[in-house]
Amino acid sequence: MNTHLCTALILAGRSVPVLPLRAGKVPFGNCSACRDNACGGRPNMRTPGPCACPRPCHAWAAATTDPTTLTGPAWAPVWKHAAAVAYHPGGIGLTVVDLDHADAVAWARRELPATRTVPTTRGEHWLYRGAMSSLNEVRDGVDIKSTMVYARWLGPGTGTMTALPDVVRNLIVKKPSPVRSVTAPVPAGGGECRHRTPAYLERGITMAEQRITEAASAVHATVYRTFLAVLSAHGRCGCLTDTHAARLFAAAQAKGESPRHCVDAWSNARTALGM
Questions:
Q1: Are 142 and 104 spatial neighbours (Cβ–Cβ below 8 Å)?
Q2: What's the pLDDT band for 187 if we cut at 50, 70, 90?
Q3: Distance between CA atoms of 190 and 256, rounded to whole angstroms?
Q4: Which end of the chain is more exposed for a tag (fewer CB within 10 A), N or C?
Q5: Per-residue pLDDT tens for 5-33?
Q6: Exposed, middle or buried: residue 271 (CB in 10 Å: 0-12, 13-18, 19+)?
């Protein structure tokens, strides 16, 4: 039997929801229409694609403890090409603090309670007993993986597992990431838009937040197009402020976008508009 499938079946027998990963730590689709995330799902985050499969076809939502599914026609051929096994930490009441490099590990050793650790290619996974929301890049090299994401299975680890502490929960309770301000000068008259009303701007920001929040797929593209539309309408008149931009960044990050991706999308939109 394939080594990865054997590992998956052992974990499933211990009530750990698992799924196969291909090269690059990306899930397989369970149907041909969803291969390579063609249906629009984001592979590691909160929104599997809106496909017509009997169940979500990839990402964390496909993790299962059912041996029939693991060895069934959808996944049986997949295991021959699998590069790793992943599991859904939140599905078994765990939180993984993913430390991506040596500096992040050093920070964790200074700031976080000791717990069970698992070596990774570049750093460590710290496992805590208890589930929470997930978020990438809570600080440099540190991701939180618990509910609605998957993590690679790299072994049981060593050490005693500690109950999830508030210091870890508080990592995702933070101010919106700094944004690049619009550099157009604020016009006279308290910054009121010269061709719109302040109420128009407020409605526009609210609609932009809603558009990002309701994106079911292609979140990267939706965020960029939304930033582009907002900057196109208000980026040159001086009424758009850092507070407005921070609201858009917060909406994007709630959909799983990283602070870096937000800054890049904002900058690229400004460049496209010649700002």
A1: yes
A2: very low
A3: 35
A4: N
A5: 999 999 999 999 998 888 877 777 655 55
A6: exposed
The Cα–Cα gap between 72 and 206 comes to: 46
Distance between CA 158 and CA 275 in Å, rounded?
A: 52
Token look-up 């007993």 returns 129
Identify the pLDDT of residue 263: 81
Q: 258: exposed, middle or buried (C-beta count within 10 Å: 0-12, 13-18, 19+)? A: middle
pTM over 0.70, yes/no: no
What are the structure tokens assigned to 79, written together? 């295991």
Q: Record the tokens describing residue 57, joined without a space.
A: 């076809």
Assess contact for 254 and 209: CB atoms under 8 A.
Answer: no
Please provide the distance, in angstroms rounded to a whole number, between the alpha carbons at the two ends of the chain: 58
Q: What are the tokens at 252?
A: 């994007």
Residues 6 or more apart in contact with residue 190 via CB below 8 angstroms: none
Radius of gyration of the chain (CA): 22
